Amino acid sequence: MTTQLFGQPVERREDPRLLRGEGRYVDDLGRSAAAAAFVRSPHAHARVLDVDVTGALNVDGLLAVYTFEDLPERVAQPLPLLIPHPALTHPRTQYALARDEINHVGEAVVMVVATDRYRAEDAAERVAVTYEPLAPVVGLEQSEAARTLVHADVPGNRGAHMVQQVGDAPAAIAAAPHRLDFRLDIERSASTPLEGRGVYARWDAQDDSLRVYSSTQTPTGVRAAIAAILELADAKVEVIAPDVGGGFGVKIMHPWPEEILVPWAARTLGREVKWTEDRREHFVAANHERAQEQHVSVGFDDEGRILGLDVTFLHDHGAYTPYGIIVPIITSTQLPGPYRLPAYRVEFSSLYTNTVAVTPYRGAGRPQGVFAMERTVDRIAAHLGLDRTEVRARNFVLPDEMPYDLGLIFQDGRPAIYDSGDFPESLRMLKELIDWDGFTAVRAAAAAEGRRLGIGLGCYVEGTGVGPYEGGHVHVETNGRVMVSTGLSTQGQGHETVFAQIVATELGVPMADVHVTTGDTRRFGYAVGTFASRAAVMSGNAIALAARSVRAKAVKVAADALEANPDDMEIVDGVVRVKGSPADAIPLRQVAVLSNPLRYSFSEEAKAATQFAAPADPDEPPIPRGEAPGLESRDYYSPIRSTFANGMHAVIVEVDPDTAEVKVLRYAVVHDCGNLINPRIVEGQIHGGVAQGVAGALYERMAYDEHGQLLNASFMDFLMPYATEVPRIETAHLQTPSPLNPLGIKGAGEAGVIPGAAAIAAAIEDAEGYPIMRMPLSPDDLFRLRREHAEEAAS
Ligand code: MCN
């Protein structure tokens, strides 16, 4: 490795283009395409009695109106269940257009296609749907009571039920010197990326092929679904994720109804069709996450060591389970965090409600698990009058216990085994960064001015880089360009930069020569997708392996040409040369020419190599068996199991004694994602995540009323924190490399968000002096809690 860019804080190369407004998002494409719009249900639970489209038919520019009845048989099936699981006994997925029953406000009933969006919306408004409203099920309490059913054939509204246990937690708790039992609640939230979903499809009748641009995190999955449902060969469907304006998990879902309907309409109508989601549609028709009700029992000794933990939680799954039960499985298996739990039992029920379906949002079940575990540790500390960091330290899994097997089965069906980490060192770094021990004086000084301050912390371990595989392709062209591709797509993580850093380092070429393409099935057809903080681990390693093969071939070809020993060769600045003899050198672009028996190049410098060369051995074919022309390689990385990153956050808040407003004064992060490819990008990822953590703790919630209407379905009403609310974030990195992959990396993309709610709850609790058992907390909520607490104290 000569061009050591791995580990450097290289600036993101995609930013100038994006900042200048030169990004190409789905809606920037297909300007003259026909536009689709949807008639969506205003009811949370209803039967569709009649759809009358006649009012729409005389709208100028109308091209088609489709109801469920118009769909061909394969499109009229329930959409696929992506991740089945034996515990998901009653999976339910939606139809692309509602058949006869509506299960949440926003469910699509009719698709209209017109020459432009205005006309499509006008026509959609004139479609008359007659509904028979049914009683809606909103919230976990109503769902559990099961007086009304979301799906008539799902008893108790229970889609899934699962138990995992290590040891005998109830017995350990019963025998423990101390026991605490309490309930925690976390509300619903959602990804809310700046760009909503969008699909643009072009049908080529002569070639019988489709090209689809989708704002997706999983282009190969979208291609597979479209090909299967529209009965096309995979090779006749190209799916491209152009620039994507954020996904944060919600765009992992596929196929969305619109991802099938828009391509189908394009083929049916023989013209380009595009649909761009508007903000209200995104709130009511794209998925949400988070809501859980948790019941915790913990037994511990006099020193605060946990002896047994038993957690039962209800998970609000919304109306459907298209992505299986990944989210509650992650909550249940990531809940133990950095702690050694001699006995642990976790049980969850996934309940249906008449609200938008639940699929992963950044953190994917972990913020809820961490909330349960960290609130538990804080309660133990409060019960015993111990310092909260001390109780944590006493329960940590220690570095010499790695690899540490939790005894649980993770989301990928493989054992959850921590591969690396040094939790005591992380805690030491965090305490130093926030000056934990100096806080008593800070608090006292503030109190003297009538200000109320509190400090809290939250620790977590996060399974990242989940399998099964990802691939990479590296190709040195005869002009010296190094073309790199991987199948997963990018939503803002800086992949164009980091993958180029990896290849430049492995191959010894300047980064400017490396060009990266992601999320384009024309360039790389096998992929899983961008989620679970997996791109760096999965595609990063696959690309590194491909680059290493290219390097090996380049060295061999150049050594042959120079009659040198391959072991004596190095590649520096794109030139393959004999170590210590820089004159014996061939540029990589020329090696690319030599690697092709056709030896054909337009490059001036490569001219010499393009001349006729007599075969070295007339009895050998020009390309020996097992070899391939060109200086390129494709490789895959498939891990035996996930790698576990970890981190710890500490936060200082100020709580207004009168208005109950909470201000975050300081936010400190210690983060361990193994070897850093690019610290600048990782810090950016952490900052974005922390912003979402602060949002989930203090601002964002999905305010459903009892009718299943989302009351804050716009950015006017949904409280998103601005730069003014997001604190300056102080970050320190600990790098314990993962032994599981060649680059020693662990994921980082979700880290920032995971312990936010737990740490902020702890800090508010510290400031206020009574337990905080729910999130988020608006000033209103806190004001009410204060009053309740004062009343309790008085009685
Ligand atoms: N990285 C690094 N060194 C490491 C680990 C990661 O330099 N040891 C870099 C990676 O190379 C990559 C970034 O950090 O540029 C995030 O890497 P990774 O943890 O592999 O996460 P993914 O690239 O797979 O991204 C997915 C993750 C998830 S699950 C969500 S949700 C999320 C997130 O990333 N959504 C995002 N970050 C986001 N950032 C933006 N801007 N937009 C989103 O929608």
Report on this model:
The structure is a single chain. Helix content is 28%, strand content 24%. By secondary structure, it is α+β, with helices and mostly antiparallel strands. The protein has three domains: 32-134 and 191-285, Aldehyde oxidase/xanthine dehydrogenase, molybdopterin binding domain (Aldehyde Oxidoreductase, domain 4, 2-Layer Sandwich), CATH 3.30.365.10; 370-466 and 640-794, Aldehyde Oxidoreductase, domain 4, CATH 3.30.365.10; 467-637, Aldehyde Oxidoreductase, domain 4. A seven-stranded mixed sheet has the order 3-5-1-12-9-10-11, sandwiched between helices. α9 (326-334) packs parallel to α10 and α18 (679-698) packs across α19 (756-768). The radius of gyration is 28 Å and the shape is globular. The model has no long low-confidence stretch (mean pLDDT 95). Bound molecules: pterin cytosine dinucleotide (MCN).
Write the layout of secondary structure elements.
Layout: H1 15-19, E1 34-40, E2 46-52, H2 54-57, E3 62-66, E4 101-102, E5 108-114, H3 117-125, E6 128-133, H4 140-145, E7 158-166, H5 169-175, E8 178-186, E9 198-204, E10 209-214, H6 219-229, E11 237-240, H7 257-269, E12 273-276, H8 279-285, E13 292-300, E14 306-316, H9 326-334, E15 344-351, H10 366-384, H11 388-395, E16 404-409, E17 415-418, H12 423-434, H13 439-448, E18 452-464, E19 470-476, E20 482-486, H14 495-507, E21 514-518, H15 535-562, E22 569-572, E23 575-578, E24 581-587, H16 588-594, H17 607-610, E25 631-637, E26 643-655, E27 662-672, H18 679-698, E28 729-733, H19 756-768, E29 774-775, H20 779-794
Parallel strand pairs: 1-12, 8-29, 10-11, 14-15, 20-21, 27-28
Antiparallel strand pairs: 1-5, 2-4, 2-6, 3-5, 7-15, 8-13, 9-10, 9-12, 13-14, 16-17, 18-26, 19-20, 19-25, 22-23, 23-24, 26-27
The chain binds pterin cytosine dinucleotide.
The site of pterin cytosine dinucleotide has 37 residues, from helix 14, helix 15 and helix 18.
